[in-house]
């Protein structure tokens, strides 16, 4: 049996993000990919694996062609926001098994610019075929499904709307430390609650922003780490899980598939949630952050409200900094944002985040991080545990 190789993230980058009116999604893919390769200091010729989703008819084929790549390992797994954590897990497995040496994950979207230019409309539903045909006629939009789940948690556990609002307040506090965040002006709980209602109980600031932007992550086998200009961030363990397509098939609205993917990732990494220094969690809506914290084991089921209301998620003074760049609620959210979680986690572990840099007691840099993406309407989850080199 061939020994499995260790796998590290050796390069990460974002494209231009926020308001980008003069670029195509392909161009944002390319910009992020070039920057990630430059970050790693590796030659493009070493890239023999490529993964992408969300663009074109044959995403990895079309985007790879645009980038001038001819990969011998590809992945086009598309499970919404958790796509990139799942792809990172697949890529790490492929590299460890010797099926690839260096894998590039790339994403780019002009979701905001397309709406402004009239090239698309806001996504109210993902379609009305298959299982969705039984829900779409009754107004079950994406946001309505998340709102229903949040309301169930409030009923079951007494979670308050003020506690959910705290997630948005603390995300904005972290974004205030990030010069690249789209919105940095602090907000209060009252301001979150007084905003326009989008889907009860969510007002506008309970919901992610819409932006343009792209990201790229480069993973490599251990023997290439010494050739990189950056410190490696090792992939310790990962997990993935799917839950449901139809809301009627979801056994419990208060439990996300992160309860499974997180358990698998921590077990495979050989670490406990209490050892993690910070977390990057998919936050299309405030409830996603709260319930994912519970399901990853950072607090007990039903205790998420009390956990978040004490300022624990803040970079400055928080016991468990979460979404240290401001997250999808304040930094950027161009669609399937899971790749941005990995970029931020790696930058934090390498100590590159300036004013928003997470520090352990005594000022030391963080050692362990978790990135957990959620897809669809809590349909899928991918969780990755990372360690500083």
Topology, pairings included?
Elements: E1 7-14, H1 25-40, E2 49-51, H2 59-67, E3 73-75, H3 83-96, E4 102-109, H4 111-116, H5 142-157, H6 161-175, H7 189-193, E5 197-199, E6 202-203, E7 213-221, E8 233-242, H8 258-269, E9 278-281, H9 286-295, H10 304-308, H11 327-330, H12 338-349, E10 368-375, E11 380-388
Parallel strand pairs: 2-3, 2-4, 9-10
Antiparallel strand pairs: 1-7, 1-8, 4-7, 5-6, 8-11, 10-11
Helix pairs in contact: 6-9
Domain Thiolase C-terminal: 239-387
Protein name: Acetyl-CoA acetyltransferase
Pfam families: Thiolase_C_1 (PF22691)
Task: Explain the overall architecture.
- This protein has 389 residues and is of the alpha/beta class.
- Helix content is 32%, strand content 17%.
- Strands 3-2-4-7-1-8-11-10-9 form a 9-stranded mixed beta sheet, with helices on both faces.
- Strand 5 (197-199) and strand 6 form a beta hairpin.
- Helix 6 (161-175) crosses helix 9.
- The longest helix is centred in the N-terminal third of the chain and has 16 residues, at 25-40.
- The relative contact order is 0.19.
- Residues 239-387 form the Thiolase C-terminal domain.
- This is Acetyl-CoA acetyltransferase.
- InterPro entries: Thiolase, Thiolase-like, Thiolase_C_2.
